[in-house]
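Q: Structure tokens for this one, please.
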Amino acid sequence: MSMQTISAAIDRLTAVLRRRPEFGLHDDEPATACWKGDLRVVSTHENGTQLETDMPAEVGGSGAKVTPGWLMRAALAPAQRPEL
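A: Here is the predicted structure, written as tokens:
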């Protein structure tokens, strides 16, 4: 996907949300978290999508997966609009 396509999609979404802010509010599907041993957890969405997390080796995990804290920071990070 090109930067122009992404930029156009962001512009369309911005226009929709300005006209109808309630469009951005909806009930989300619940996630289910399942402990997989050690410090690994697999979270599953109702549609079957799964995300596995682990802690770094320094604190007892394997370090093989992304940490839950990193995912939280990524979710809260401000989006950067790409330069065209």
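A few notes: Strands lie at 31-35, 41-45, 50-53. Helices lie at 3-19, 68-76.
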